[in-house]
Design a protein that fits this description.
Distance between the termini: 61 Å
Order of helices and strands: EEHHH
Oligomer: single chain
């Protein structure tokens, strides 16, 4: 088996184990950041750090999935990107309106 910087390529079983471990870690981090964000919001604290971390994580995860699916030839990715851009623009507009009149 070919090694890259001393790391060998994983077989299918190791790949599945790593995938499940990554999913469990991702779920834990999302839940922990969401709880932290809600805690800060309800106790009058500044929730910018947990909100930024949670938002960044979701953006990076989504972009990585879209990139992988686009490389595999999935044609639905283009429609999802357009929908995501429209929803993001709507949320930003709503936030600006809320900041202006709220």
């Amino acid at each position: 088996m070919k090694k890259w910087f001393g790391v060998r390529k994983m077989d299918e079983m190791e790949l599945q184990i790593t995938l499940h471990a990554s999913q469990a870690a991702w779920i834990f981090l999302v839940v922990a950041l969401a709880i932290w964000d809600l805690w800060e919001l309800t106790h009058g604290g500044n929730s910018t750090l947990p909100t930024f971390l949670l938002g960044s994580e979701v953006v990076i995860f989504t972009l990585a999935r879209w990139s992988g699916r686009a490389r595999m030839g999935d044609g639905r990715v283009k429609g999802e990107v357009i929908l995501w851009i429209v929803l993001t623009a709507a949320l930003v507009a709503f936030g600006l309106l809320l900041a202006r009149f709220g």
